[in-house]
Amino acid sequence: MSIVSDNMKYLRKLHGMTQDQFARRLGIKRASVGAYEEQRANPNIDVLKLMSKLFNVSVDDLLKKDLRKIRETPNLLPIDKPAVTPLVSEPKVGVEPQTLSSIFEQYYTPPAAVPRPQSIPAPPSVPVASVIEPPKPVAPVQLPSPAYQPPAFNNQYDNSNGATMVQMPTAEYEKTSPQLIPYVRQSQWKEYIEKHNNSDFIKRLPVFQWPLLPKGAYRAFEAGDDFTYPNAFLIGQFIGNWYDIADGKTYLLVARNLGVVCRRVYNQVKIKGTLLLSSDKNTIPTFEVPLKDVLEVWEIKAFFSTVLPEPTVSLDHLRHLVNQMQEELNQIKK
Predict the structure, then answer these.
(1) How does pLDDT run across 131-140, given as a tens digit for each residue?
(2) Is the overall model pTM greater than 0.85, yes or no?
(3) What DSSP assignment string belongs to 212-257?
């Protein structure tokens, strides 16, 4: 099966992936990728289907066509372009700062039959090491001084001279203590893209505190439909330089013509001047975004949601139940 081996190696290199990165995307061992490419083993139909979905190429083409011979054909790999995230109408200017508790109140309404208590008794004291402190809502405050400048992302890349690496200055926001985290709702995404580097706009955003985060510049964004858990807020640490973006980690990107998206990112800047974005949801296609269109990158460090995840089904438990049923059927037949 030399054609599929050559096609696998060609498509992997065309998308700037190492064997290890390619194996992780397919959910197989790196040694298996090497064996397939060196024709020491043949990929099974499941692996072929995964490759077909990843590169948007039919299984029939992978098996029968030598894709290297039509490399210059523009429509060789019709990878889906990203759908533009719909941006809602601009919010009202001058929104009052909100505390973290007000966020939860907007998503939760107590049952009518149970009146809300006027006061909540303090919980019993427990050793500090046994619990994690909940978020601490704070009163609206002013972010630092007129000298404050929002952090800037280095998206400089020159195709002719190679990658441009610039040491970005430390933002004044990183020096604040205690850390105050502004948050952005989906209704503010359009305005945020236009004013993300406007210090007056950033200072008007509501803020809250979150425990146990190391020193750095943080911002929270209301998650969209591309995040696994609904009604969630994502807390991201600012990434100042594109070469600090690590393959396979989850980031929140703010980009022109794209909006605010949460994806696993693969750094292809040195090879193609792009970032490869992959979603944990199978219904969302993988695509590339030019580095020059990226305005901000935030590495997801924490999130909170008002919806608990659904329980997962244990395959071992199901197998045990099937065995029990089989034993009971055998007893009945006797």
Answers:
(1) 455 666 655 5
(2) no
(3) TPPSS-EEEEE--TTSSSSSEEEEEEE--BGGGPPTT-EEEEEETT
